[in-house]
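Reagents: none. Just compute today. Olfactory receptor 10K2.
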Amino acid sequence: MERGNETLVREFIFLGFSSLAGLQQLLFIAFLPLYLFTLGTNAITIATIVLDRALHTPMYFFLAVLSCSETCYTFVIVPKMLVDLLAQKKTISFLGCAIQMLTFLFLGCSHSFLLAAMGYDRYVAICNPLRYTELMGHRVCVGLVAAACACGFTIAQIITSMVFHLPFHSSNQLHHFFCDISPVLKVASHHTHLSQIVIVMLCALVLIVPLLLILVSYIHIISAIVQFPSTLGRYKAFSTCASHLIVVTIHYGCASFIYLRLKSTSSSSQDALISVSYTILTPLFNPLIYSLRNQEFRSALRRAVGRTISLPQR
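Predicted 3D structure written out:
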């Protein structure tokens, strides 16, 4: 960071929605309810899991952590974006940009490893149900979350340090609405092809390694499910994995499109469009996909609402 602070650039200007100057107020009106609804659905998910003892299982523990992570992720990016949609000067300080990149990379990388942990949870539940309580005890679950966070923070710190140790002497205009890796690299005065390859490889590590672990888990899961004697049993087993598979597909699809490409093949407008999906829409859909389509969670939510309504009457 010290080397970065010696450069002429003291702040960055966001140009992510500059081509839609006449529509920025409409975008604010559209994005604000989505953001508030995202906060609300994730808060309801976390509160229901905490309050209902029937949901005190490893699967819902990971879901609560996932909802908390996504709430923090959107908080790092979306409020600043909403303010900038109404502001004339859309700037962020050099240090603020570095902190934003470090934080969202930490949360994003941790998210990838957390999805792998959730895949392992489904593997144990279906392939080794008799030892599920033993293999997925509270300490194991906490350890998996801690390992996901440690890996995420380490990789985020390495990438952020590599990016912000580059010299920034010329342009300070970012064709994006937050400090993502590619737009910041594009305004660096000089960076070697090697540094860019290293960053892409680290991003690939975050995406490909957890994805491979998930694929291995589901190969064993599918092998076990097809041996179930009843059709109903196979359907129930697949339904418990369907939500996780949908979230994995959305997360890794969007993230791979953004981060597994070199600078020369990237488009600022495409990156901004995809970024809107995984900073606003994905955190909105995930609790809906995981929770509201889950009968067990819906029952717990009704019980929690019922208890809340009955409290004033007492």
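The two ends are 58 Å apart (CA to CA).
Action item: order primers for follow-up constructs.
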